[in-house]
Structure formats: C-alpha cells, structure tokens
Amino acid sequence: MSRLCAILLFAASMTAVARAQGSGTIEVPDSIDATDSPFLVTRIAKGRIAGIKRDAHVTLVLIEDTKGRRETLKVNSRTKFKADKGTEYAGKKRISPDDLEVGQSVKIIFAVNSGQILELRLTAKT
Description:
By secondary structure, the protein is α+β, with helices and mostly antiparallel strands.
C-alpha cells in the first residue's frame, strides 16, 4: 500500500513541476524577411547554368534546375567556388566567375531573401 501511495505522490508532484515551467508559448511571425533577423534562410539547388550576365561588381547567373524551373541569382566577391573531382576545374586552386560557362552542371547554396549564391560547386555532368 505504501508503494502505491509513493507512486501516486511522485506522479502528482511531476505534474506540478511540469506546470511550474510554463506553457512555452511564443509568438511566431508570419515571415522572417526582416533585414535585422539573425537567421539566414538558405536553399540548395542542382541544375545547369542556362545564362550568364557579367557586370563590374556582380555576375548574374541563370540556373535551370532538373525540373525546368529557372532562377536568376547573384554571384559576387563573397561567393565561394568549388569543383568536384570529375570536372575540368578539379585541380584549379582559384575558380572565379570568369570560369563559369553556359551548360555547366552546378550545385548551389543560395540565400532565399537576397538571391545571393553563397557557394557554387561545379559538378560532373550526369
């Protein structure tokens, strides 16, 4: 009987402890497009380069994904370039926007809100 009372007492005290911690309810905003947000929403896409427009400070790259969707994204001085082993740029130490060509297969990581390509990886053609 005392064992049953101990279990019931323990169970009752756990509900009181859980209730004392609060409900944990927070307000969730509808969007996080604010520029002062500490978070950067990124996406990964695979596809090929369908077009390139070069400017003095920014290169615009038209990416076509495997489903045929197209998106124009920005490449600038903060974009990191990499190349897989099966590509012609695999041994090259420094890849620049000037090395990009229409038709190259790529995998990109880009910022959703700004369209900035954070990393562009040249991949082997599949």
